[in-house]
Amino acid sequence: MAMPLSNHSQPTSGERSYRIAVIPGDGIGQEVVREGLKVLRSVTAGDVNLSLSFESFPWGCDYYLKYDRMMPEDGLEQLRTFDAIYFGAVGWPTVPDHVSLWGLRLAICQGFDQYANVRPARLLPGVRGPLRDRTPEEIDFIVVRENTEGEYSGAGGRVHQGTPQEVAIQTSVFSRYAVERVIQYAFELARSRPRHRLTNVTKSNAQQYSMVLWDEIFHATAERYPDIATEERLVDAMTTRMVLHPETLDVVVGSNLHADILTDLAGALSGSLGLAPSANLNPERRFPSMFEPVHGSAPDIAGQGIADPIAAVWSAAMMLDFLGEPDAAAAIMRAIERVTETGAVLTPDLGGTATTTDVGDALAAAVSLESGAGDRAKQSTR
Questions:
Q1: CB 294 within 8 A of CB 119
Q2: Which domains are seen in the chain, by residue range?
Q3: What is the pTM of this model?
Q4: What mean pLDDT do residues 338-365 have?
Q5: CA gap 12, 324 in Å, rounded
Q6: How far apart are the first and last CA of the chain?
Q7: pLDDT over 60 (residue 211)
Q8: Residue 197 pairs with which residues in a beta bridge?
Q9: pLDDT band at residue 249 under the 50/70/90 scheme
Q10: N- or C-end of the chain: fewer Cβ atoms within 10 A?
């Protein structure tokens, strides 16, 4: 099922055309994005009124080694006119991680005010997760992460470097404005789901300023959403909740750092980080939003052709859904479910022997079948 990410969807009738900026980035990002584009092209082949044009940008660690920058100085201006950004991964051993991350991914997230990072966690059909006897119905939730400030605001510095008196200060920044908008987004997302349930994750017992402010804003916002059942959990207790009782979760909202860590655990509970998609959203659409798999560049398996492309393909489905193409997004999700449930074409992270390309081909073929079924259904109702 496609996931509603925005209340500002465009109509799905008539000719629809979207320009997508593609940044494959580093490592397996290049491999999985290639398969994601293959699946997206399969979607457009099944819908004559849907047009996607792609422009690729060679930014990343190789670019940094040539130009001492992760992207050009006017990189954001180059991306600004696109409808969405399709991103692979960033990071390689030749470039310090803090340089690569801040120079590309975080620069885009903050520069385009992509303040809602949305990460679904589902146990897909046919996938056996690490939690014994858990079913797909029991692991199906979404984490909303504040994405522009908090613990990753970039505020701080180092003094007396190289001396015994060296000091590093990393300051978390929590503004009422930023906290209010991401919590409101989480409430709206919870309202769009059948269970209407939202869990607030903080550490307000120990972080008595920032997290107490967060909690106060959550409580005030909850008063405007009487139809949403709410609860609160400390982040350390939330880790045990996710492992012991994942079936109790629906939508979860947390700060930049807390939600980042929790979603890696969520990916593992879903069976593999290779299944973890994400969306970096500017819900008001003042800037393009960015869609990427969570797994990173994975230098240890890059170039071996065994990276799982499902997270990248799922992220592409989220992109289409946000652009206002729920039918196309749903076709991709059904294709993913068909491939995982059948189990014949899976990469090693899911116990299979297929290559990245094999899975991409299977997903593209499944999308073609879904598109054909959709066309036949439409004709039968005329």
A1: yes
A2: 17-122+272-382 (3.40.718.10), 130-141+148-153+166-257+264-269 (3.40.50)
A3: 0.92
A4: 97
A5: 7
A6: 25
A7: yes
A8: 229
A9: very high
A10: C
